Amino acid sequence: AAGVGVGTLYRRFPDRGALITAAAHSYLSALADLAATADRESPTAWQALTRILRECAELRLGALAAAVEPTLHADIKSDPALTEVRTTITDRIADLTARAHTEGALRRDVTPEDIARLMTLQIYAAPTEPYPAAINRVLDLLLDGLRP
Prior knowledge:
This protein is mainly alpha-helical. It contains 8 helices and no strands.
C-alpha cells in the first residue's frame, strides 16, 4: 500500500525489531507532543486532561492499542530505546493528574494509570451515528464520572 518493496524496507531497517522500534518511537513521540501541547495551551490541568482524552479518542488510539499483539506490546514496553519517550508521557500524565486533584476538578481516587487506560478507550459508533457524535457522548459521560 505504501508503494515500497521489501528491499526498500530492509535497507532502512535491519530487522523487524528496528522497524517496530521506529514506528513505536514515532507514535509515542506524537503522543508526548499531544500531551505537552494540551498542557501548554490549556488554562487548567483538568482541561488539559480532557483535551488529551478527547484527542486520543479522535485518533482512535484504543483501536491501535487493541491491534498490537501482547508480545509486541511487551517488546515495546521493554525496549530501552523507547524508555525516555515513554517516561515523558507517563510523567506528564502523572503531573496533570496531581494538578487536577489539587484544582479539585478530578476525583481523588483517579490515578495516572486510570488516565492512561482511558487514553486507549475504544468508542463504538453505530452505523447511523457519526463518530464525532459518539466520542462526544461517551466522553461527556466519562468526564462526568471523573469529577468529584
